[in-house]
Design goal:
Elements: E1 2-12, E2 21-28, E3 31-36, E4 45-51, E5 56-59, E6 61-63, E7 86-90, H1 106-117, H2 121-127, H3 135-143, E8 150-152, E9 154-156, H4 157-165, H5 167-170, H6 177-193, E10 197-201, H7 221-234, E11 238-242, H8 253-268, E12 272-275, H9 285-298, E13 303-307, E14 312-317, H10 328-337, H11 341-349, H12 351-359, H13 369-377, E15 383-384, H14 399-405, H15 410-418, E16 426-432, H16 440-447, E17 452-453, H17 470-481, H18 490-496, H19 499-504, E18 521-524, E19 530-531, E20 535-537, E21 546-548, E22 551-552, E23 554-559, E24 562-566, E25 569-570
Parallel strand pairs: 1-4, 1-5, 6-7, 7-8, 9-10, 10-11, 11-12, 12-13, 13-17
Antiparallel strand pairs: 1-2, 2-3, 5-18, 14-16, 15-16, 18-23, 19-22, 20-21, 23-24, 24-25
Protein name: Amidohydrolase family protein
Pfam family, one: Amidohydro_3
Domain Amidohydrolase: 49-564
Length: 583
């Protein structure tokens, strides 16, 4: 028999959580056609044959929390997620997206995405090719795009509210019964056309560029439950949200949020997936929330905390931002250097410039100056990221501790470090999931049967965060390298980002290596898999910048039986497609 693809002698980690086994694998018509004993398919006729001796073969990873809503219109690869074994992404999270939309609201939706997800508005304006108004039309537009990997999307609350209510919706005014009925109708229409779910945001941290919270932040229960009932009526779709208090901005909010989420999941039978993170203000709250969700899940109520594989933190440095970013002499040097990093480093090495910057305070009322000051006050929680990147640093490796050990003033020490590596050095400032300088809470979250791995935010926060590599991190750190605590077995790590995430969104045709399943696969040199340091690129439309992180060790990433990346490089194959639910 002739096959599209044959993989021989691979160590199969099949996505079920079962023990690895060695086998040959064959693919026909985008599906796994055969699993055989090692060597049995070695001489089978095939368009492509991969010898996976000594390599691990996994299902393709399903990343349920991305923000490629704009990028998808210009980037068929959806970098950087594809570099980390991801073969299916779900976008439209956190209540932001680009449909439904009227022509006069396009720029407003771009401003909403820019503010919430830190994607340059100029890049979105230059890159998005608008060809829709309604959500079904948006899906049809996506359906015609050339793609390397599969994409599913959700109906975003922010866009729906603005579409139905105009400025009242954008300004978070209360919705009338008529408004709610129209919103529920539009959401059901989107689900029945193929959306994988509905998303909303209730955290005060998520704001548009004009400072307004995301539409829906203060939505009352009648609005939320009407939309949840629309999912139930359609018989499909996940209700995804960034809940109030997720960033520690309101310590009383999480319990209130969990109450209505539990009732909504129980009433509708639809999965409610909410972000769960540890924050320093109440570092043990996550345990109570996880336990409550876990008891509901065990009782058959589909409440699923969405968790991250590592701390959520900022990457600071000369190319992103730092405590000196808004000091007058620094601003003058940066303006003169423009995009020339070498010229900026040279200017900052000037002793007089250095002396001036260290002696100054921020320009009054500078945008983001508070964030820069916050970073400066947290040098005891800021670390050199390094190569390989260290995401579980010990407290005695902080910049404050290193400066003290060197007998130097902390800001002078930091200033000189910023100029290292030609100004490309990056520093890791954990904000969430690292209250006690340990990943042990993250491990508990990952191991919980109710949890779903997400929150990587691929495509978003491109100026200061780069967590789309969470899938690779699960393999390297959790399944192989962790030195400061217990690890996670490789089969479980793979299951958490394949079968578990696929099943949660109803994508039961993938996520497992078995005959008849979709042939989305990774062939990985597990022993030599390596996460590379993030680096700044200027490859967004209009030359806008973003942090990107690659990996070494993915020998092949396969979508529907076609190799889309070989050793991390684009093969030119475009077998990816829009994944529609509800049909």
């Amino acid at each position: 028999m002739s096959y599209t693809l044959v993989i021989t002698n691979g160590t199969i980690v099949d996505g079920t959580g079962g023990e690895p086994f060695t086998a040959d694998l064959a693919v026909t018509d985008g599906r796994i056609a055969a699993l055989a004993k090692p060597g049995e398919l070695a001489h089978a006729e095939a368009e492509t044959t991969i010898d996976a001796t000594g390599l691990v073969v996994t299902p393709g990873f399903v990343d349920i929390h991305t923000h490629y809503d704009g990028q998808i219109t210009w980037d068929p690869m959806l970098t950087p997620s594809c570099w980390h074994g991801v073969t299916t992404v779900v976008m439209g999270n956190c209540g932001v997206g680009f449909a439904p939309v009227t022509e006069d609201k396009r720029d407003w939706l771009i401003g909403l995405m820019e503010g919430v997800e830190d994607i340059p508005g100029a890049a979105l304006s230059a890159g998005i090719r608008w060809a829709w108004q309604s959500f079904p039309e948006y899906l049809d537009a996506l359906d015609g795009l050339p793609l390397a990997i599969d994409v599913g999307t959700q109906v975003p609350h922010g866009a729906v509210r603005a579409y139905v209510m105009g400025e009242r919706g954008a300004k978070n005014e209360a919705a009338s019964a008529e408004d709610i009925a129209v919103m529920a109708k539009l959401v059901r229409e989107g689900i029945e056309a193929g959306a994988l779910g509905f998303s909303t945001s209730r955290t005060l941290v998520h704001r548009a560029v004009d400072g307004e919270p995301v539409p829906g932040t203060f939505a009352a229960e009648d609005e939320l439950f009407a939309i949840g009932k629309a999912l139930a009526a359609a018989g499909s779709g996940v209700f995804e949200l960034a809940p109030a208090g997720i960033m520690g901005e309101d310590l009383a909010a999480p319990d209130r949020e969990l109450d209505w989420m539990l009732r909504l999941a129980e009433l509708t039978g639809r999965t409610v997936s909410f972000g769960l993170l540890q924050h320093d203000g109440a570092p043990d709250d996550w345990k109570r929330l996880l336990d409550t969700a876990g008891r509901a899940f065990e009782a058959g109520v589909p409440l699923r905390p969405q968790v991250s594989a590592r701390p959520l933190g900022l990457l600071t440095g000369l190319q992103t931002f730092h405590p000196f970013s808004f000091r007058p002499s620094y601003l003058a040097a940066a303006a003169k250097a423009g995009d020339d990093l070498g010229a900026l480093v040279a200017a900052l090495r000037d002793p007089q410039v250095r002396k001036s910057i260290l002696a100054e305070t921020d320009v009054p009322d500078s945008p983001l100056a508070a964030m820069a000051a916050f970073i400066g006050l947290g040098l005891d929680r800021t670390f050199v990221l390094g190569d390989p990147p260290e995401y579980e640093p010990a407290p005695d490796t902080s910049l404050a501790h290193a400066a003290q050990s060197a007998g130097r003033e902390p800001f002078e020490y930091l200033y000189d470090l910023l100029l290292s590596e030609g100004g490309r050095a990056l520093f890791f400032r954990p904000l969430l999931n690292y209250s006690a300088f340990t990943h042990d809470p993250i491990r508990e979250m990952l191991l919980h049967p109710a949890s779903a791995v997400g929150l990587g935010d691929g495509g978003a926060h491109v100026g200061a965060i780069c967590d789309a590599s969470n899938t690779t991190f699960l393999l390297t750190h959790w399944a192989r390298d962790r030195a400061r605590g217990q690890r996670i077995p490789l089969p479980l790590a793979v299951r958490k980002m394949t079968k578990d995430t696929a099943d949660m969104y109803g994508l039961t045709d993938r996520g497992v290596i078995a005959v008849g399943k979709k042939a989305d696969l990774n062939v990985i040199d597990f022993e030599n898999l390596r996460l590379l340091p993030p680096a700044m690129a200027y490859d967004l439309p209009g030359g806008a910048r973003r942090l990107l992180q690659r990996a070494d060790g993915y020998r092949a990433t396969i979508v529907s039986g076609r190799v889309v990346l070989r050793d991390g490089e684009d093969t030119g194959a475009r077998p990816g497609a829009l994944v529609r639910g509800g049909r």
